[in-house]
């Protein structure tokens, strides 16, 4: 049984088996539950699915910066998963028609993301956990989206990483 550590990071996020990493992007049709109604352990279990043992689950970030979603099949290509965002998961289900929908949570960034971005990050959401699989295969899908892309192109850049055993497999 392979054992691995799966840290998910972004300037606010990480994603997996339905991990939707967002910097506050909106999508009609999604139903989202934030931390407080779900736990970091729930998020990790959603990512790895049935038959995978998880342990040592940690989340760093603001409580509304992480959650789980349903209803993404026609939008994202997978129905359910985890949202990690620099903003608020509550902004995700709605179409973004407001250029000021973004949230500044005034939270710290992430040192590994700082290295990737080449500049200090902020409002990071990071979900990390260990897992043990019964097989040698684990399939994770992720989508990186940015609400701020068209509004802040240039002065700000969103960064995302998906580390497996210390290697950024999102590259």
Write down the secondary-structure element order. EEEHEEHEHEEHEE
The oligomeric state of the chains shown is single chain
How many E strands?
10
Largest sheet: 5 strands, antiparallel
Give the overall form: globular
Structural class by SSE content: alpha+beta
Give an account of the 3D structure.
- It is a single chain.
- The chain is of the alpha+beta class.
- Helix content is 14%, strand content 32%.
- The strands form two sheets. It has a five-stranded antiparallel beta sheet with strand order 4-7-1-9-10, sandwiched between helices. A five-stranded mixed beta sheet has the order 3-5-6-2-8, covered by helices on one side.
- The longest helix is centred in the first third of the chain and has 9 residues.
- The radius of gyration is 15 Å and the shape is globular.
Detail the topology: elements first, then pairings.
Elements: E1 3-9, E2 19-23, E3 31-34, H1 40-48, E4 52-60, E5 66-70, H2 73-76, E6 81-85, H3 111-117, E7 126-133, E8 142-146, H4 149-152, E9 161-164, E10 167-168
Please summarize what this structure is:
This protein has 171 residues and is an alpha+beta fold. It is built from 4 helices and 10 strands.
Properties at a glance:
single chain; 171 residues; alpha+beta; five-stranded antiparallel beta sheet; five-stranded mixed beta sheet; 4 helices
């Amino acid at each position: 049984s392979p054992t691995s550590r799966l840290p998910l990071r972004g300037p606010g996020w990480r994603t997996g088996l339905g991990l939707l990493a967002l910097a506050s992007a909106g999508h009609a049709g999604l139903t989202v539950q934030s931390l407080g109604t779900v736990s970091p352990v729930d998020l990790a279990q959603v990512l790895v699915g049935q038959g995978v043992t998880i342990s040592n689950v940690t989340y760093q970030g603001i409580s509304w910066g992480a959650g789980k979603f349903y209803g993404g099949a026609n939008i994202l290509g997978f129905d359910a998963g985890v949202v990690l965002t620099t903003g608020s998961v509550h902004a995700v289900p709605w179409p973004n028609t407001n250029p000021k929908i973004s949230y500044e949570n005034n939270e710290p960034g992430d040192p590994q993301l700082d290295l990737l971005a080449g500049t200090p990050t902020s409002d990071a959401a990071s979900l990390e956990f260990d897992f043990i699989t019964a097989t040698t295969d684990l399939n994770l899908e992720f989508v990186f989206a940015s609400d701020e892309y068209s509004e802040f192109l240039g002065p700000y850049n969103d960064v995302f990483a998906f580390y497996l055993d210390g290697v950024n497999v999102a590259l």
